[in-house]
Amino acid sequence: MLDQPVLRVSTFRERFRWRQSVGQRQAEHDLKDVPVIEALENIHVMDGDPVATEHVRTALTAGGFIYGDGATQVFEPAGATTYVQQGQQTRGEWYLDASGHFCSFWPPSYRACYELRWIVEEGRIAGLRFTELGQGSCFDGRYR
């Protein structure tokens, strides 16, 4: 089995600069709305890799997320989180448990913990896949 190359976030910027340097201004137009999240630039992962415990805080707080149903969520560094679905805002908390898993608490009593995996597209980190521990339910959050 051949080793697959490690995708690097910086590859996206390198390709963009190369296209500009050879006069392909179309690339500038096509890529202008694609977010490049500076906080993630030095994290080198492949699609589907688990988020290492030391990267969970950075992964969650690097930018807001949008989910497949149009809901959005922001994770604050101090542990607060805001989830908005169809205009309804819900405030909760997030933390890392003793095993290093991402967990969330939604008052009055809902708690859940998740395995996090990277979503990487075209050499850049595009979001996170959340899989609830013990339940198996899975959803993708993409950086916006």
Could you characterize the architecture of this molecule?
There is one protein chain. The chain has 144 residues and is α+β, with helices and mostly antiparallel strands. The protein has one domain (10-143): Beta Barrel (Lipocalin). The chain is 19% helix and 38% strand. It contains three helices and eight strands. An eight-stranded antiparallel barrel has the order 1-2-3-4-5-6-7-8. The longest helix has 12 residues, at 10-21. The radius of gyration is 17 Å and the shape is globular.
As a whole number of angstroms, the C-alpha radius of gyration is 17 Å
Helical amount: 10-25%
Strand order across the largest sheet: 1-2-3-4-5-6-7-8
Provide a count of the helices.
3
The low-pLDDT segments are 1-32
Compute the separation of the termini in Å: 36 Å
State the domain count.
1
Averaged pLDDT, please?
81
Indicate the topology.
Blueprint (H helix, E strand, L loop, with lengths): L9 H12 L3 H7 L21 H9 L3 E3 L4 E4 L4 E6 L2 E9 L5 E5 L3 E12 L2 E9 L5 E6 L1
Describe the structure in brief.
The chain has 3 helices and 8 strands, in the order αααββββββββ.
Tags for this model:
Lipocalin, 144 residues, eight-stranded antiparallel β-barrel, alpha+beta
